[in-house]
Design goal:
CATH architecture of the largest domain: 3-Layer(aba) Sandwich
Distance between the termini: 29 Å
Number of helices: 13
Strand content: 15-25%
Number of domains: 2
CATH topology of the largest domain: Aminopeptidase
Shape: elongated
Largest sheet: 9 strands, mixed
Helix content: 25-40%
Radius of gyration: 24 Å
CATH class of the largest domain: Alpha Beta
Oligomer: single chain
Bound molecules: ligand BES, manganese (II) ion, zinc ion
Length: 491
């Protein structure tokens, strides 16, 4: 979809040219682009301020049908995210208008605080991520994705960045796959169906996918996970996707665990209207982990990466787990069910304890739409990070900055563990306090990781958006795929 090309605007026939414009600095070295910007800025309504747009049709001295100008604001505030947004907005306009292709005038890095590679990468990401239409359930497919986005480049840039275009396509493509899984309604993705979807997508060289069924889970004594699944007519699954570098020894082993509740009704502690409608997204952690594995197959890091996805449906029924029930987890610890809606932590602890025993990872990261409390703390766009290793938390926050899948570190205070104590069982799955719910959920998980280097990312907020943003439509966001890929690149 992305092509890097040298384009001579004096001669080339271009249907739609996209020009990012800085308010206070010249950021284009191409003289034709610079004179187009002069034309645009001659109009009172366009100065290059952030959010401003202007269209010129058939500008003089060119063969351009339309030139779209996007204001970026002042140079000192322009970052990678500015370019993701511009590319996403331009592609969104193209889709709405029914265009087949766009050409983007790539700015030069001179006068900006970021380098050329970052600009190219961000434009590619915004273009690929923005070029996604989820219309599987519409009778009429009104919107069509663009066929091509051209990034204007010098000959040297073309050579330097075509490899980059391939990795961006793989990573952002995986992010889009995750979005699609998340937006798929729960009647079409009960655990076995979702497991098959993951298996089908991961038939890539370098990946090995295994689906474990309920009988296997029973034999292995995944008591906490099975308890969550027992109310549904659709039985649980554990999906494992393994990647190992080919022909050399892996430097390290990383395990990624993703919460895969294909629908979270709350169970007997049924969720009320207003909270229940979007709970098909409660498998976003699993979608992000599976998506990351797809990208890993293309990135080919020299470490072993294993994705582990416990999949269940949390339903109320005559066979459902009840508040007050006590279950025995894989690790052996018993848990009293204080609330059947605190189900995510139950499936995660069995998957994590099993994965630690099986793979002895150097690092384990879990992603989960775990608590509404995390959304209260950080809002809908930022994930919470909890870790027993300060440096790991910092690395994840840094990857969040780089990818704009933002994360903020929260504490794991030892003394709050008090709140999970229970008279009858080893632990309660719910805190005895109304406050700090994201923290107590993370502390519950921490009881099952031993001294494995571990981080938990609560993505309850950013996994889903109600309204389209510049490069993501309404629905699942695929949050976590780009974040984890960036982090894996630095391991
Ligand atoms: N899946 C929810 C958390 C959630 C809420 C995700 C909103 C996305 C948007 C989770 O299983 C849950 O129900 N958590 C409870 C925990 C409570 C019962 C201790 C919550 O946050 O209210
Ligand atoms: Mn729940
Ligand atoms: Zn849940």
């Amino acid at each position: 979809m992305i092509e890097i090309k040298t384009v001579n605007l004096k001669r080339a026939k271009v249907n739609t040219l996209v020009v990012p414009v800085c308010e206070d600095q010249d950021i284009h070295t191409d003289s034709s682009v610079a004179s187009l910007i002069d034309m645009a800025k001659a109009y009172d309504e366009f100065n290059g301020k952030k959010g401003e747009t202007l269209t010129l049709f058939q500008p003089d001295g060119t063969q351009i049908v339309r030139a779209l100008f996007f204001g970026l604001g002042n140079a000192e505030k322009i970052n990678a995210e500015s370019f993701r947004c511009v590319a996403g907005k331009a592609v969104g306009f193209g889709i709405k208008t029914g265009l087949a292709a766009l050409t983007i005038a790539t700015p030069s890095a001179a006068n900006l605080l970021i380098d050329a590679q970052t600009i190219f990468k961000a434009l590619m990401e915004g273009a690929v991520l923005g070029n996604h239409v989820f219309d599987h359930y519409k009778e009429k497919k009104e919107k069509k994705a663009l066929k091509q986005v051209v990034l204007m480049a010098t000959a040297a840039q073309k050579k330097a960045y075509s490899g980059l275009a391939k990795t961006v396509a793989a990573v952002c493509g995986a992010s889009i796959t995750a979005r699609q899984w998340i937006s798929t309604p729960s009647n079409d993705k009960q655990p076995d169906t979702f497991a098959q979807m993951i298996k089908h997508a991961s038939t890539l060289p370098g990946l090995k996918t295994t689906i474990m069924d309920e009988r296997w889970l029973e034999k292995q004594k995944f008591g906490a996970m099975l308890a969550v699944g027992q109310g549904s007519s659709a039985s649980p699954r554990l999906v494992i996707v393994e990647y190992a570098p080919k022909g050399k020894k892996a430097r390290q082993t990383v395990v990624l665990v993703g919460k895969g509740v294909t629908f979270d009704s709350g169970g007997i502690n049924l969720k009320p209207s207003g909270s229940i409608e979007t709970m098909k997204m409660d498998m976003s952690g699993a979608a992000a982990v599976a998506g990351t594995m797809l990208a890993v197959a293309a990135l080919k890091p020299d470490i072993k990466v294993v994705g582990v996805m416990p999949l269940v449906e949390n339903m109320p029924s005559g066979t459902a787990i009840r508040p007050g029930d006590i279950v025995r987890s894989f690790a052996g610890k018993t848990i009293e069910i204080g609330n059947t809606d605190a189900e995510g932590r139950l499936i995660l602890i069995d998957a994590m304890a099993w994965a630690i025993k099986k793979y002895k990872p150097d690092t384990m990261i879990d992603l989960a739409t775990l608590t509404g409390a995390c959304m209260i703390a950080l809002g809908e766009k930022i994930a919470g990070v909890f870790s027993n290793d300060q440096q790991l938390a910092e690395r994840i926050v840094a990857s969040g900055e780089a990818t704009h899948e933002r994360c903020w570190s929260l504490p794991l205070p030892e003394d709050y563990k008090e709140l999970l104590k229970n008279d009858f069982a080893d632990l309660n799955n719910m805190s005895s306090s109304r406050y700090g719910g994201a923290i107590t959920a993370a502390l519950f998980l921490s009881e099952f990781v031993g001294d494995t280097r571990w981080a938990h990312i609560d993505i309850a907020g950013p996994a889903w958006i109600k309204k389209a943003s510049d490069y993501c439509g309404a629905g699942g966001t695929g949050f976590g795929v780009r974040l984890l890929c960036d982090w894996i690149g630095g391991v």
